[in-house]
Design brief:
Blueprint: H1 20-29, H2 38-51, E1 55-59, H3 62-72, E2 80-84, H4 89-96, E3 101-105, E4 127-130, H5 142-152, E5 155-159, E6 167-168, E7 171-172, E8 179-183, E9 196-200, H6 206-213, H7 219-223, H8 243-254, H9 256-280, E10 292-293, E11 300-302, H10 306-318, H11 334-338, H12 347-355, E12 356-358, H13 367-378
Parallel strand pairs: 2-3, 2-4, 4-5, 5-8
Antiparallel strand pairs: 1-9, 6-7, 6-10, 8-9, 11-12
The structure holds pyridoxal-5'-phosphate.
Residues 61-63, 87-88, 90-91, 133, 159, 161, 183, 185, 196 line the site of pyridoxal-5'-phosphate.
């Protein structure tokens, strides 16, 4: 067999799901292609109504929504913020940019979410915020996390990059923290290539959020006729996407039921066809507590060892199938080490990082493609 045959099933494929081209053409024809045009307002309103969030602001990425959050919470040098070590760099970097000291907590071995039982021990008088990440769109234990945050006077920020339309105890993810961040990167359920959203659950933060997003100016207030000129009033940056991107995204959000139903079918088919094989080989499949509605963002599995994980990636690739792994533990990264991270600090994160593999997963993955992935996986020689 050749070393690298042509790719037959890629890991991710962003797909048009509705009126993306039509809406982008409308935005262009209306000659309103900078930020906060009609499609941005429509996308904000759709998310506000569906999720029940007082204010949603589209952003240029989830990373930027998180950066805005760190500014909004007035994170100062030396403030401590608690994160799971098993997450994407941006979750943490956004706060470190303001001078925060990251405090890494381990994850639960079942959902791979922040382990709430270890949270209390990470809190100090300097703790300013706790940032749970709803990994794979399955909710963190929000009751316990909110209670610890309340007792320690820390803000809860949800990194909901994976979890749009997922629920915890019948309530949408992104509505629990004072602030939450969404991603519309091309790997996400809903995309415009690069994009994100800031969810603001405390209305008192809306005005400042608008200023931070508009380069530190009160331009939004000027456009609404609330002031007669706009000027520099705070720190900020350019966090608003072009209305062309918002038009693309709005077309996707309109198709949310179809997209989520298709992804649910893909997820269920993997689970049904891999579960016996997985239990026979001590492979852990995703766990979704019964009080959580997952967002069907990804399908992962944990192989018994690093070598078996690497072997399966190679085996799949040799059969034309792309699979990937993530995240490298942040406490062991070059930056994490500068903040005192060392091996053994977060043992579950360190193990999971070595064992996790993600199978191809996107809205229009066909049954034929999925059968190929499943059959090839079942053929893997342990
Ligand atoms: C948990 C998490 N947070 C934040 C991000 C950053 O998202 P974006 O690429 O939209 O900035 C990602 C990216 O995949 C992520 O997985």
């Amino acid at each position: 067999m050749p070393e690298n045959p042509p790719l037959l099933v890629e890991f991710n494929r962003p797909v048009m799901m509705g009126k993306e081209n039509e809406y982008m053409a409308q935005a262009i024809a209306a000659a309103k292609i900078s930020g906060d045009g009609p499609f941005t307002r429509k996308a904000n309103a759709l998310l506000e109504q569906q999720l029940g969030v007082p204010k949603v602001l589209l952003t240029t990425s989830c990373t930027h929504a998180l950066e805005m959050i760190a500014i909004l919470l007035d994170i100062q040098p030396g403030d401590e913020v608690v994160f799971p070590s098993f997450t994407f760099v941006s979750t943490v970097n956004a706060f470190v940019l303001r001078g925060a000291k990251p405090v890494f907590a381990d994850i639960r071995p079942d959902t791979l979410n922040l382990d709430e039982s270890q949270l209390e021990a990470k809190i100090t008088p300097r703790t300013k915020a706790i940032v749970p990440v709803h990994y794979a769109g399955v909710a963190c234990e929000m009751d316990a996390i909110l209670e610890i945050a309340r007792r320690s006077n820390a803000a809860v920020v949800e990194d909901n990059a994976h979890g749009l339309f997922g629920k915890y105890k019948d309530r949408y993810l992104g509505t629990f923290g004072v602030l939450a961040a969404q991603s519309f990167h091309e790997t996400k359920n809903f995309t415009c290539g690069e994009g994100g959203a800031l969810l603001i659950n405390n209305p008192a933060l809306v005005e400042r959020a608008e200023i931070i997003r508009e380069k530190g100016t009160n331009r939004s207030h000027f456009f609404r006729g609330q002031v007669d000129k706009y000027t520099w009033v705070d720190i900020g940056s350019s966090y608003l996407p072009s209305d062309i991107l918002a038009a693309f995204l709005y077309a996707q959000l309109e198709q949310r039921e179809k997209i989520q139903t298709q992804r649910q079918m893909v997820w269920n088919y993997y689970y049904k066809n891999l579960k016996d094989w997985a239990s026979a080989h001590e492979i852990q499949l995703p766990y979704v507590p019964e009080y959580c509605d997952q967002a069907y963002h990804m399908f992962y599995m944990l192989l018994p060892t690093f070598e078996l994980r690497q072997g399966l990636i190679t085996h799949l690739r040799q059969c034309g199938i792309e699979s990937v792994f993530h995240y490298l533990p942040l406490h062991l990264s070059e930056m994490g080490a500068r903040f005192g991270g060392k091996p053994g600090d977060c043992p579950v994160t360190e193990r999971v990082s070595d064992q996790l593999l993600r199978l191809p997963f996107y809205n229009v993955l066909t049954r034929e493609e999925q059968d190929r992935v499943i059959e090839t996986t079942l053929e893997y020689d342990f």
